[in-house]
Amino acid sequence: MTIESYEIQPLFATPYFKANIASAISAEQVTFIKNLKMIRNRDNLISENLYIFEAPELRSIKEAVQEALDIYANEVMGIDQKLYVTQSWSLRNEPRVGMHSHSHSNSIVSGSLYYCELPRPLSRVIFDKSTAYQRLELNPLREKQNLFNTPINVLTPDTHELIMFPSDLNHQTEANLSDLPRDAIAFNSFIKGKLGNYRDVSELSL
Ligand SMILES: [Fe+2]
Known about the structure:
The chain is α+β, with helices and mostly antiparallel strands. It has helices spanning 27-34, 59-77; strands spanning 17-20, 38-40, 45-47, 82-93, 99-102, 109-113, 125-128, 152-155, 161-166, 170-173, 182-192, 194-195, 204-205. The protein has a single domain, classed as Jelly Rolls (Sandwich).
């Protein structure tokens, strides 16, 4: 063999943030969210109100999400602009219903909050590396799968977890295999502040 040693380094990576925010959620808030009027989304149900964090009843949850967005902006993105929640809504997957693959437009970071007890078995969230139709299927052998070649990454969020990820990342939720509804909150975000440079005529104030 000619090559005696070699190294392979990751050039880029996709972040997946998670934090437990159980202390910010009260029993009254769980009831408030569960009582929101729900309408049909494609397969699952979505709240009619798509700005639920504007409800004064959910203030402590909104504040906890803001704290998480501040950490994400600072530690993951390393920016001095502020991330803030744009739309926020609740979702319900009835038994045997999941959520089709999608990404979130006009948003930078998206998130989900599993604000109440999740039914068992837990539905997993499947993240897809590709953002477009794949003409060439170059799937790695199962025993050869690694961070570089895996086409998907599967994670299992649990009760009271807040998760966040880049909004352009395709994701879907497995069908709810329990006999109880599976409830969650989701949200989008955007940045506030100044981008670019005045003298470069690239300045943009948001
Ligand atoms: Fe989503």
